[in-house]
Amino acid sequence: MEPLTDDFQNATLNPISLCGDCWQINFSALFDPDVEDMQLNSISVKDAEKAEASCQFCRLLLREARHLARSGRVIHQRNGQPLVFNFEREFQAGSSGHGISEFTTTILLKVNLQPVPTPEDSEIKFNICPIFTDRGDDHLQCAQLVSRDKIDLGLCSKWLRECEKRHLPHCQDPGREIEKSLLPEGFRLVDTVDECIILAPQNCRYIALSYVWGQVATLRLGEDSANEFERPGSLARHMADLSKTVQDAIHVVRSMGERYLWVDSLCIIQDSPQKAEQIGKMDSIYGAAVLTIVAAYGSDANAGLRGVRPGSRIFDQSAATIWHDLTLVATAPSPGDIAESIWATRGWTYQEQLLSQRLLAFTTDGQAVWQCASSHLLEDAPSIIKVYPPKRLRQLQAEFRLNERQPEPNPTLSLLPLQQPDAITEYIAVVEGYTKRQFTFDDDILIAFEGFGSLLQRHLNTRFLAGLPEAYLDQALLWIPSTKQKRREGSKNHLPSWSWAGWIGHAHYEKLDSSKTERVLPTVKWYYNESKKGAKLINQIGIGIDESRFGEERSSNTFCWVPIFELLGNSLNSLPTSNLDSQQRPFLQFWTSCSLLHIAPGETARLAASQRESSMNPPVKLHLVLGQLARQLSGYLVLNGERLPELDQARHEFIVLSEAQFAGFNPITSACTPSNKSMMYNVMLIEWDDRRETACRLGIGRVLKQAWHASKPVIKFITLG
Questions:
Q1: What counts of helices (H) and strands (E) characterise the chain?
Q2: For residue 110, what are the β-bridge partners?
Q3: Among 387, 372, 409, 188, residue whose Cα is nearest residue 294
Q4: Rounded alpha-carbon distances, angstroms, from residue 436 to 347, 482, 483
Q5: pLDDT digits (tens, 9 = 90+) for 513-526
Q6: 4 CB neighbour count, 10 Å cutoff
């Protein structure tokens, strides 16, 4: 490294202990963005250990290396090769650790210990950042010293203030007042100053809490206690009855200079008829909050917010004062992946994460992590300067959260193909994340989806049918299991087999190409039956893709639509009468083409063997053939569950859902070849419940039209439950 300049040595009146080698390092130039080229010499572990007692810089290197090594120690050599610290300067442009929206250029010193001390260590890397202590509060630092005892909540408050002040328009939602206007009647907040629970003052700002309840017995607001807790000081008398997470959240709100906190257990009257309405307004409740506190640690509400209480954090920062005005900090390892926490596995917390403007997460090791649309920060440094930056949690874009568009139907016809609307793209992404989550009670699967559903309902001017958007039903029915699934049986509400909500397990939708062109052509006239009043046409006309609902010009898909199967059955606008079990609603009812197809011979045995070797639990994919002995493949099927033994025994019934604009498929990958012509059908494997006269979904797939018509299909009326 370059030697110190006379100016730097003279300017430093109180030099700190450095060894002879480190004394020659020009630290001033090292972290100066205006200095482009510097020669950086390696330092061996052996030399660093010799100087450790007297040299701050060598001590910093060794301390952080030992902290990262699995064995907790580093050796001089491995396999005859000396271990050395290699250095590399990196220019980093981005937001600073204090002024989170300020744009600054800084220098990081990237350190890499090679070779690694033991085979168990994949690599030992860390970054060193400078903190200049004599440059005033206005100077932008890329890192800061962190207390080992507890989180600096003043810094968290500064993050919020800076975001509100400087992050327009990405973070400061211009539609937040819209969200407030949609807050439910009887909306309550915890007043952390007067220590009570009150009806929310008009247009007040508040912080929300997202956490895991678990099996903890904790104070909950009831109709008999609501009046009592409105009195100032009433909550203080019951503080011991609150869970530790709620207690800590109250402390965080006060310490950040805020007043009001929303907690579901205290702000929703748990035995009130209004509870269902408030649960359905989660999009407004979390969307209108200035910040959401995330308890990303522990399995229940008594885990607390680690790092809030003194001594509760597991955090050890390596730092060294090199000169009187320069401290070097090794950036701490990123906190454990929040996506791996129990909080990130629960169904209820997913919409809270998606719908929030800003997130302040308290992690397993007691670090605070800030996330908004513009910044991703940790206490010691922005995430961008970490060796392994933590993953951002998925949030809905502000533009989507705020879009209140309710378009009127557009009568203009166009021959352009249908393109997937942005709102449906968001819906698909949410479903794929949501179906990975877990629920203590199966009935909650759709209830915990209502917040996002309410938002999308306003956005598209459409309702939801068991979690599927009515205006996009033909496409929404084509969800694909990502794993072997099991039927989800609600104890209070029937969860239909045609919805992803009716199955336990991850689901996804087929990825579109870059044009985002949907290759689904409606052919079925759909009726929805959810009550004793009987079936009603979806979208008022029965078409499963109502493009006018998302402000699109009607495309060739709509232009060409006729309920072909209903016409072929000579049953236009005719529904057979049946004795439906009221407990099994909702149903989809429709006329369609039905046929019996075979699974390819030997297919199930081969797949069963391959899946016994797999630990990923993938779904069962099968090939379809026209006849039992035929060799030409006619299509493919993805099963929801297993059901392998039965599938070789006989032909099985399939129904057509829609036409598919594909020319054929790859028998190995099942990937389909896009086409302007519709040469395949989207089909569903069904099983009949003869007692209830209803069918249920067992799988989804595609079949070549030519093969389908050769299979002698018939037109049937289907009640799908």
A1: 22, 34
A2: 88, 127
A3: 372
A4: 8, 10, 10
A5: 888 889 999 999 99
A6: 19
* Position 71, amino acid: S
Domains in the chain: boundaries: 6-136, 156-320+331-400, 422-720
Query: Pairing mode, if any, of strands 507-508 and 480-481?
Result: antiparallel
565 contacts 656 by C-beta, under 8 angstroms? yes
Peptide bond into 184 cis (omega under 30): no
Give me 670's structure tokens: 């099942």
Q: Quickly tell me which residue has 């209004």 as its tokens.
A: 274
Reduced to 3 states (helix: H, G, I; strand: E, B; else coil), residue 46 is: helix
The three-class DSSP label of residue 109 is strand
CA distance linking residue 282 with residue 323, whole number of Å: 52
- Tokens for 715, please give them: 């037109």
CA distances from 494 to 198, 446, 585, 695 (A): 37, 11, 6, 14
Its pTM stands at 0.84
- Cα angle vertex 140, ends 139, 141, to 5°? 110
Residue 18 has pLDDT above 60, yes or no: yes
* Whole-number Å distance between alpha carbons of 715 and 694: 16
Instruction: Quote the DSSP letter at residue 658.
Output: E
pLDDT tens by residue, 616-674: 688 888 888 876 555 678 999 999 987 654 554 567 899 999 999 999 998 888 889 99
CA–CA separation, 38 and 17 (whole Å): 23
Indicate left, alpha or beta for 712 from its phi (over 0: left) and psi (-120 to 50: alpha). Answer: left
- The DSSP line for 541-558 is T--SB-GGGGTPPB-HHH
The closest alpha carbon to 476, from 390, 538, 417, belongs to 538
